[in-house]
Amino acid sequence: MNRRRFLTGVAATVTVGGFVTARVSAEDLPKVSEDDPTAKALGYVHDAAKGDTTLRKPDSNCANCQLYQGAEGSQWGGCAIFPGKAVAAEGWCKSWVVKA
Ligand code: SF4
Question: What is the best residue among 46, 55, 82, 92 to mutate for testing ligand 1's pocket, by most ligand atoms within 8 Å of CB?
């Protein structure tokens, strides 16, 4: 292996290593605000009990929604509807879909 090829391999390894360490867990994501325009449009609330009573199924919340990306037992986690933000496991919105 020549010197140039070796250095290219080292740079790629550092880049990949830097990416891995720069990743944040879902618990570290900024929490979505109930005042966020998308949150308002979807009736998102941090407390499912305060969700739209005409649409919300009993016991439905983010933790048992198919779109919730938080770990089992987490209090906050990512959601496909709110990329880069965390929703409350006890939250709810109109896009709730039963977890398969
Ligand atoms: Fe919660 Fe599901 Fe709505 Fe996301 S789509 S905010 S996980 S209820």
Answer: 92
From the CA atom positions of the chain, what is the Rg in Å? 19
pLDDT for residue 12: 36
Task: Read off the pTM.
Answer: 0.77
* Structure tokens, 54: 């005409």
H or E element, residue 5: helix 3-22
Report d(CA 52, CA 31) in Å as an integer. Answer: 21
Cβ(26) to ligand 1 under 6 A? no
Tokens 């906050």 found at: 76
pLDDT the model gives residue 18 = 40
89 C-beta closer than 6 A to ligand 1: no
